[in-house]
Sequence to fold (155 residues):
Amino acid sequence: MHRLLVINGPNLDILGVREPKIYGSTTLAEIRTCLENLASCHSVALDFFQTNYEGAAVDKLHEARGKLDCIIINPASFTPYGMAVRSALVASDVPAILVHISNIYARHDGPDRQRDIFAPEVVGQICGLGVYGYVAAFHAALRHLGAGLRSLKDL
Fold:
């Protein structure tokens, strides 16, 4: 059984009410339920975590080392400068898939919105697909682990 961690950064606890024009109206609880259903269908053990505190994210990533097969991370506002979280992700030595709900590279609402210190450290990145990015990341994680679709012929 594969073991996945989904880790969510600051302000994602208010997803669904926070800037719905950018992030949509789906809540983090709804995303969690969707991923738990997917995990159940694919015999995957899923740990779902959200924090507004950098130290809690670091601690969670430290716990991952040697215990998980893949991490799905939405660092949220840790994205441009969360060096401690980035370092913990690298130190976990667990492959990771990065998720951004919005297309951060198309954002023009602040000078740091397009800066992503996590992107060079992950297996892949899903950006701008809204909350569906979590579903895509789940399938990408399975594929990376050799348990998911390997080609379009498998559809």
User: Anything to note?
Assistant: The first strand starts at residue 2 and ends at 8. Residues 75 and 115 are 12 Å apart (CA to CA).
